């Protein structure tokens, strides 16, 4: 079985994290991934403390296995969400969209395993000093908010820069991606896009169909001029956003355009006005499966490839 030190650190069976996708990664999906032996993650997104607490309670009716909460640091509710994860004794906190050191002292003191998502070596070093037990090195191939460096370039540099385990994210959808991540020095992977079509994922039917129909050139990155680059599927909304961005529209106008667009896609299935955040790897996602089938396929595929790797060495 494919195992690494991160499995022992977190008490999970398989080194697969499910991405904390806003409006998508809820108790249903997270519980299913945790039950499958990976690390299911609830996305706190822009929700308040009450919503998150309800999701945590719901998840605990479905599984007793370790899980995590993704705290989006840009959220206006970040402070109260940071307190809820302590009060609810959440085993793992994954952070995104910012620097989490403001909260890490309290989280670490409460016994929470803190694993920030990092798009640069500098941030990875900073959070290691603040007490992170691991980091997610996320390349720009991923869906949602992205950095500049690719997974292939970023992961080995982060591995060389820190002593804690590194989880690779961005552009991973099958056993080949998992095996490649381990060869780069990662001890696990975080996967988002493939879980969009999981049976237990409650995202809109339109969203799932769009992912299944995606090709290698189906995504676009917008928002670089605002400082918040986001990768999504190409849709009427993203085309209009990109056009106004290229025309030099002010940041305020672009932010207004993007407000609520992800929810329109994830919950309403609104193709015309929705933002269907999705990674470049969507072209490899061809079928609906349960979360357990996805986790097992990722791990089993990587095992077979890694066992056969010696065939390339004379």
UniProtKB/TrEMBL annotation:
The keyword Oxidoreductase applies. Keywords: Flavoprotein, FMN, Oxidoreductase. InterPro entries: Aldolase_TIM, Enoyl_ACP_red-II_put, NMO. SUPFAM superfamilies: Inosine monophosphate dehydrogenase (IMPDH). Pfam families: NMO. GO terms for molecular function: nitronate monooxygenase activity. CDD domains: NPD_like. PANTHER family: 2-NITROPROPANE DIOXYGENASE, 2-NITROPROPANE DIOXYGENASE-LIKE PROTEIN. This is Enoyl-[acyl-carrier-protein] reductase FabK. It comes from Enorma phocaeensis.
């Amino acid at each position: 079985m494919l195992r690494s030190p991160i499995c022992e650190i977190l008490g999970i069976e398989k080194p697969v994290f499910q991405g904390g996708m806003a409006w998508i990664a809820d108790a249903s999906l997270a519980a299913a991934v945790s039950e499958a032996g990976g690390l299911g993650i609830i996305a706190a997104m822009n929700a308040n403390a009450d919503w998150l607490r309800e999701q945590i309670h719901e998840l605990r009716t479905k599984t007793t296995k370790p899980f995590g909460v993704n705290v989006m640091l840009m959220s206006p509710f970040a402070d109260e969400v940071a307190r809820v994860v302590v009060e609810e004794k959440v085993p793992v906190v994954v952070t995104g969209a910012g620097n989490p050191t403001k909260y890490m002292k309290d989280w670490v003191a409460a016994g929470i395993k803190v694993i920030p998502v990092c798009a640069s070596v500098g941030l990875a070093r900073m959070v290691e000093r603040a007490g992170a037990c691991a980091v997610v090195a996320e390349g720009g191939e991923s869906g949602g908010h992205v950095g500049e460096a690719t997974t292939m370039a970023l992961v080995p540099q982060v591995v060389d820069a820190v002593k804690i385990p590194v989880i690779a994210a961005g552009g991973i959808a099958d056993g080949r991606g998992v095996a490649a991540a381990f060869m780069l020095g990662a001890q696990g992977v975080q996967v988002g896009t493939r879980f969009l079509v999981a049976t237990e994922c409650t995202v809109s039917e339109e969203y799932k169909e769009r992912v299944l129909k995606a090709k290698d050139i189906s995504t676009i990155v917008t928002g670089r001029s605002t400082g918040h680059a986001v990768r999504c599927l190409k849709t009427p909304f993203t085309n209009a956003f990109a056009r106004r961005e290229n025309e030099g529209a002010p940041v305020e106008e672009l932010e207004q355009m993007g407000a609520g667009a992800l929810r329109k896609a994830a919950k309403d299935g609104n193709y015309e006005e929705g933002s269907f955040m999705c990674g470049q790897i969507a072209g490899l996602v061809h079928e609906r499966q349960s979360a357990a089938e996805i986790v097992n396929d990722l791990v089993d595929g990587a095992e077979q490839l890694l066992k056969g790797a010696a065939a390339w060495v004379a």
